Fold Methylthioribulose-1-phosphate dehydratase.
Amino acid sequence: MSDIPHTAIEAIRAAGRRMDSLGWVPATAGNISVRLPGDRVAITRSGFHKGFIPEDGVMAVDLDGRPEDGSLRPSAETGLHCGIYRRFPKAGAALHGHSVPATVLSRLAGNSISLAGYELLKAFPGLPTHEAAIQLPIFDNDQDIRRLQTRVTQAWDAAPDAPPGYLIRGHGLYVWADDMPGAIMRLEALEFMLACELETRRLRP
Ligand SMILES: CSC[C@@H](O)[C@@H](O)C(=O)COP(=O)(O)O
Ligand SMILES: [Zn+2]
């Protein structure tokens, strides 16, 4: 029997249903986590559909991604979640999805996408008005998650004010916040702005 708090498991399952309802976790795409007390992380097990996460579809790992129960396989991208929690002590929840706008735009753009002039920018820290911009970093995809996390960490070192999210090219979006409601809010804000960017490029290539 897992000793992961029921509230953490249910927050993860509800986030999966929400992301699925918006079409952001096709097939078995996406992964979801929350920080637990004691340097632990509750994270989705690998390979489940995130719209239908079973009660035992969440497991615990340490901040280096090591499973507490070695018989269970955590998300293939556990290293990226743990990288977020190690780097940002206030981060309490992290979400990853594979939406069409995130996937398409990350293939069209260079090493970042500028989001400017959107009212929804106010969902991000330190942006009290729409008269602001964020540079959402884009990293080339890599099946070697440790290597990918090294590049993400290097980018954070180079730009300490980077927003609490990034794209992986041809793959999807990562976003985090202090807690799960905050992470969902930021995910929805980013996805909205990315959808607007995609639509703008379609109308005004
Ligand atoms: C449907 S393949 C997607 C995976 O390779 C991965 O990118 C993903 O988001 C889900 O992997 P998972 O191991 O279930 O967390
Ligand atoms: Zn993924």
